[in-house]
Amino acid sequence: MLTIGNFDGVHLGHQALLARVRAAGAARGLPVCVMTFEPHPREYFTPDKAPARISNLRDKFEALRAHGVDRLVVEHFNAHFAGQSPEDFVRNIIVDGLHTRWLLVGDDFRFGAKRAGDIEYLRDAGRRFDFVVEQMPTIAHDGVRISSSEVRAALADGNFERAHALLGRPYAITGHVVHGMKLGRKLGFPTLNLRIAHKHPALSGIFVVQVHGLAERALPAVASMGLRPTVDDSGRVLLEVHLLDFVGDCYGKLVRVEFLQKLRDEAKFDGLAELEAAIAQDTREARAYFAHALDANGPSARRDFATSATDRIS
Fold first, then answer.
1. In which order are the strands placed within the sheet that holds 254-264?
2. How far is the C-alpha of 155 from the C-alpha of 267, rounded, in Å?
3. Distances (CA, A) of 93 to 68, 69, 188, 257
4. Cα-based distances in Å from 260 to 2, 52, 180, 202
5. Which of 101, 149, 227, 300 ranks highest by number of CB atoms within 10 Å?
6. Residue 281 DSSP code
7. Looking at the chain, which residues constitute the CATH 3.40.50.620 domain(s)?
8. If you write DSSP's letter for every residue of 59-96 in order, what string do you get?
9. What is the distance between the terminal CA atoms of the chain, rounded to a whole angstrom?
10. How high is the pLDDT of residue 189?
11. Where in the chain do CATH 2.40.30.30 domains reside?
């Protein structure tokens, strides 16, 4: 059982498609396989106009696994792959490579060189090579087609409630904590650093976040996602997270950073003194956010927060 696509974000539309593949697989006693691409085809053809990335590969893999995918095939999208004719794509990938018996694609699926292959070509190929082809209709939310583009728009606007509604889960980024420049520590705001492998994340700026994976409960924090223009001209994207009231050695640990609210856009400051003042203000606003959330949730939430804030790890 096969489905093909970029699956950026694994949003509710993707999830509906995966549910259909799982049901068909269960009925036939066959495993569920997803084929996706790296890089995104538009990153290959038009890198300057490529869409922002919602998910890194790790988060995409985990989301697909959570929705019942048994096998994942990541095709390296390069000149050879892009140059295949629709017929070669069907023969080499779908038939000989994956031995497909049943294939489900979305309503806008195109394939092969110059996107020459369409659903009718696939159906004809299915009849010739003995595999079933189905097409998934559009899935809508509040009258709007659920798509990766809609999720990107919500994230770019800092509308995490909307992103949650489209994804079916809070928006988060997972990664291992790596060593950085240690500048935050010098300024009095030590940070966890997570590398972002792609150059165009779906959001940038300063955010209120909570961090999973370091203690029993999520830890309150403030985060910066972007290029750090005041201190770095390398063009490298970095996610930096300052934990509130937490001390511990976090290097090498796998954490999940869940985004709660946008505070401001990234800015370039005239020196470290201005940067330090801005970080201090961001931290005060993050503390105010969590204090308001705790007050809204009552005494039990305040007790839980007090416990998590004093957690320590070695």
1. 172-176, 254-264, 205-212, 219-226, 238-243, 192-195
2. 18
3. 22, 18, 54, 36
4. 35, 20, 24, 15
5. 227
6. H
7. 2-145
8. HHHHHHHHTT--EEEEEE-SHHHHT--HHHIIIIIIIT
9. 45
10. 80
11. 174-297
Walk along the chain (314 residues) in steps of 10 and give the mean pLDDT of each run. Answer: 95 95 95 94 88 95 96 94 95 96 91 93 96 91 88 97 97 92 67 88 96 95 86 80 87 96 91 88 96 74 45 36
On whether the CB atoms of residues 222 and 206 are closer than 8 A, the answer is: yes
Domain 174-297, CATH number (from 3.90.650.10, 2.40.30.30, 2.60.120.230, 1.10.1840.10): 2.40.30.30
Question: What is the C-alpha separation between 55 and 227, in angstroms, rounded?
Answer: 18
Q: What is the 3-state secondary structure (H, E, C) of 183-252?
A: HHHHCCCCCEEEECCCCCECCCEEEEEEEECCCCCCEEEEEEEECCCCCCCCCCCEEEEEECCCEECCCC
What tokens does 84 get? 């295949």
Residues in the chain: 314
Distance (Å, whole) CA 17 – CA 65: 14
At residue 155, the 3 state secondary structure works out as: helix
Angle at 15 (CA atoms; ends 11, 16), nearest 5 degrees: 120
Strands of 27-70, DSSP E: 33-38
The Cα angle at residue 268 between residues 207 and 212, in degrees rounded to 5: 25
pTM of the model: 0.88
Q: How many helices (H) and strands (E) does the chain have?
A: 11, 15
What are the structure tokens assigned to 193, written together?
């650093």
